[in-house]
Sequence to fold (497 residues):
Amino acid sequence: MTQQKLDQFKTLLKEQASYGEAIGLMGWDMRTKAPKKGMGHRAEVLGVLSQKVHEIQTSDEMKSCIDELKGKVEDPVMKRALEEAEETYEKTAKIPVDEYREYVTLQSQAESMWEEAKDNDDFDSFRPYLEKLVEYNRKFADYWGYENHRYDALLHNFEPGVTVEVLDQVFPKVREALTSLLDKIKNAPKQPDPSVLEGHFPKDKQEQFSAEILKRMGYDFQAGRLDETVHPFAIGLNTNDVRVTTKYDETDFRTAIFGTIHEGGHALYEQNIDENLSFTPLADGTSMGIHESQSLFWENFIARTEAFWQTHYELFKSYAPDSFKDLPLDDFYRAINEVKPSFIRIEADELTYCLHIMVRYELEKALIGGEIEVKDLPRLWNEKMKDYLGVEPETNREGVLQDIHWSGGAFGYFPSYALGYMYAAQFSKKMQESMAVESHIQNGDFQPIKEWLTEHVHQYGKMKKPLEIVNDVTGEGLNPDYIVDYLTEKYQKIYQF
Ligand code: ZN
Fold:
């Protein structure tokens, strides 16, 4: 009986994963190659397939598998898959069906309204949609339940185990350290000159260089590909089909090169998940924060280091146009690490990025908690930007309207980015204790680094929870000291203060 039920459970998971793969592939297609005219039709198809996944997750069959198998399954993979399926089932079941349906419609309306509002710099046209989204998310959080803060219920969707209590301890510490670093950097006598990086860099050459670096990182082109898009992303369809996308700016090579390496870090994670997890919901990154730790590790802790460019600068120049021929390595290295507070999160440097996140975290926490309302957002946004980054956007387009997240109802997502920085710093420190990371980077030998990450993080997929990984790897929980130490040391050297 149990075996039969287990087989039924596996079949349901396989169906779910297969629909998921089709949805993923269509999503990739829409964002890379699909003809414009087919978009409307494709969106409808995606709606139908997503509905199917939802039906499987909440079906009576699924419920009976969960009920009958709970506590009886020995196999660790199936045991975890069962927990995961139960959580999804419970969460969905708590939301009344018509509320869920209304919410899905609202999400897609709000997203296109946001796009228009952003284009026109018109917050008021988006405001009623955002108000409804906030209203729904407050309600959902109440349905799901929480111990201390309503926002915890939403955080759980992206970073299980992390709570307001944790973030309110960690973020202010990091913020204080970063703002004081920022002050020192502003007043430092030796400023990098980013204008040395300006110059036409043909797209095909950028593409060749990016692909070469991906290969060296250990990204498997037999199990992936590199394409062009507007908003770059990586997507794992299955462990043997993990795709990277990037975008080329012929006047600024940094977009493509650091962007590709970033997405490559996400992709390495997905390519190296244990194949035994295939066709289960566990064949995925364990959280947004751990995923981001992997992309940031490659982008910052590898590709923005002096050691990396000591080896790769000649290669870079062999692809670069002649205008970079006489640029000294040190000027190049300092320029790619320039710190400059800006309005836009996705253009932020390694140091100010977390400050952008803290602005968003505090606002969405207060919004979900009912302490502030949507109408207060533009004003509070600007105040916090001024407080933390010392810059104040003049338009909402460059301020509160810049990110897509809230328009899709994704509250609780933003902290993952800052957590990614912190996890990456913790992993990096630990890795250095067990091997000569810098000399591997200097030798362009990334194999041991990739293997370390696979052994400690990638292979597990969702078998381990995010903080379980952090604990197992580092012997401690989330600790912001490492990111602060890393940034202090790095920028002291670059800015000489
Ligand atoms: Zn990322």
User: Anything to note?
Assistant: The pocket of zinc ion is lined by residues 262, 266, 292, 295 (CB under 6 Å). The mean pLDDT is 96.
